[in-house]
Specification:
Strand order of the largest sheet: 2-3-7-6
Helix content: 40-55%
CATH topology of the largest domain: Butyryl-CoA Dehydrogenase, subunit A, domain 3
Number of domains: 3
Order of helices and strands: HHHHHHEEEEEEEHHEEHHHH
Number of helices: 12
CATH architecture of the largest domain: Up-down Bundle
Structural class: alpha+beta
CATH class of the largest domain: Mainly Alpha
Strand content: 5-15%
Bound molecules: flavin-adenine dinucleotide
Largest sheet: 4 strands, antiparallel
Number of strands: 9
Length: 388
């Protein structure tokens, strides 16, 4: 793997021997138990939920959760290492969504809610999605229109969501809905358990995407969906926006780390390919253009990895400011798209063929600049701080 091609990184405190061992275990498991099925999952358009139970039993699903919940007792760095290893083998980021949702429950759930949901999230009995985006709003989340109306001991949810990862393969959804007035203060998060069994909950199309074919992304409709009032996350209405916004730094790293992995994978594949592809009585790797291009890409890989490693350390130390996380998200994912595109060029026509991993990396990369906050929104947030 490319790690060996790149100059050694500074070892941060989080990169312990225990973490190296954990990484090696995750890598072995993915190689043996998951990668062989990836083509099937891509063709069918989703990873079956059953896959996550043995993954959880290995301690890889929520390794950062405490042992009192059945988790691995690790840190957020453990989850980020899992994401890294998944991306190095081209697996999509579905468990990142699961981790985000699980942290909402852990951080904002009442003791009863945590007791009800966290063990199932850790064991993989629940596999989670988060439904924020709507057909009419994505970046401008505070204008969402899905409504949750309190009726006695229940909320009645009506509305539609768009682009929801894990909606089909998962069975546990956190829904952002309007319980109050217009604007961010009127938004709450509500939990829908065993989604597929609920009257009033309907999955629309599984959307056909440019890339990330193994990851399911769906439209979701709520038509008088009734959930118990105690499924309101926390105890007070109107906290949803604040709850969603509070973990932004970690969530951004869940996308920046796979960007670093994809860049390294692209460089590695391209070094191998150009070494063996003959042209004009030499190999592609003999041309100065190839060598310079890959030297540039390897430099970017090194800088991206250094940046994300540093961000992980700061996340664990509690010193990662939101702006640094926004920078990591937009910059690393933009570099991912650039490097993968440069590498694909060196494959010539073969680079355009889906059977070549570089073509898939190209298609998979594009959404990284869009979901989890677009590049433009990240820049806007950074600029707000600059001009505050
Ligand atoms: C594969 C995939 C998976 C996804 N998974 C989920 C999920 O699990 N849950 C979920 O809730 N959502 C999910 N999303 C939705 C994703 O988060 C949104 O697509 C994203 O936030 C952008 O929203 P939008 O698509 O409505 O674009 P818009 O908000 O309409 O933006 C369109 C363009 O306008 C730009 N723009 C918007 N506002 C501004 C501004 N103020 N200044 C400058 N430029 C601006 C944007 O940067 C973008 O380039 C997913 C999307 C995809 C494609």
């Amino acid at each position: 793997m490319t790690h060996e091609l790149l100059p050694q990184q500074h070892r941060h405190a989080w990169m312990t021997q225990e973490m190296d061992d954990f990484r090696a275990q995750v890598r072995r498991y993915i190689t043996r138990e998951m990668s062989p099925h990836l083509d099937t999952w891509r063709r069918q358009g989703f990873i079956p939920r059953e896959v996550w139970k043995p993954f959880a039993q290995m301690g890889f699903l929520l390794p950062e959760f405490g042992e009192e919940w059945g988790g691995g007792g690790g840190t957020l760095a453990h989850q980020l290492v899992v994401q890294d290893e998944m991306a190095l083998q081209e697996l999509p980021e579905n468990i990142g969504v699961h981790s985000i949702v699980s942290h909402y429950i852990l951080d904002y759930g009442t003791p009863e809610q945590k007791a009800r949901w966290v063990p199932g999230l850790v064991s993989g009995d629940f596999f989670a999605s988060i439904a924020l985006t709507e057909p009419g709003c994505g970046s401008d989340l505070k204008s969402l229109r899905t409504r949750a109306q309190r009726e006695g001991d229940e909320y009645v949810i009506n509305g539609a969501k768009m682009f929801i990862t894990n909606a089909f393969s998962g069975n546990f959804m956190v829904v952002a809905a309007r319980t109050g007035e217009a604007g961010s203060g009127g938004v709450s998060l509500l939990v829908v358990e065993n989604t597929h069994d609920q009257p009033g909950f309907r999955i629309g199309r599984r959307l056909e995407k440019l890339g990330q074919h193994a990851s399911d992304t769906c439209e979701v409709f709520f038509d008088n969906l009734r959930v118990p009032a105690h499924n309101l996350l926390g105890t007070v209405e109107g906290q949803g926006f604040r709850q969603v916004m509070s973990q932004l730094a970690y969530e951004r790293l869940l996308l920046a780390v796979p960007a670093a992995a994809a860049i390294e994978l692209a460089v590695s594949l391209t070094v191998d390919y150009t070494r063996q592809r003959p042209a004009f009585g030499q190999h592609l790797s003999d041309f100065q253009n190839t060598r310079f291009k890959l030297a540039e890409c390897a430099t970017i890989a090194h800088v991206v990895r250094g940046f994300v490693n540093d961000c992980i350390q700061r996340l664990l130390d509690g010193t990662l400011d939101d702006e640094a996380a926004y920078m990591a998200k937009w910059w690393c994912t933009e570099q991912q798209c650039k490097v993968v595109d440069d590498c694909l060029q060196l494959f010539g026509g073969y680079g355009y063929m889906s059977e070549y991993p570089i073509a898939r990396l190209y298609a998979d990369a594009r959404v990284q600049r869009i979901y989890g906050g677009t590049t433009e929104i990240m820049k806007d947030l950074i600029a707000r701080r600059l001009f505050a």
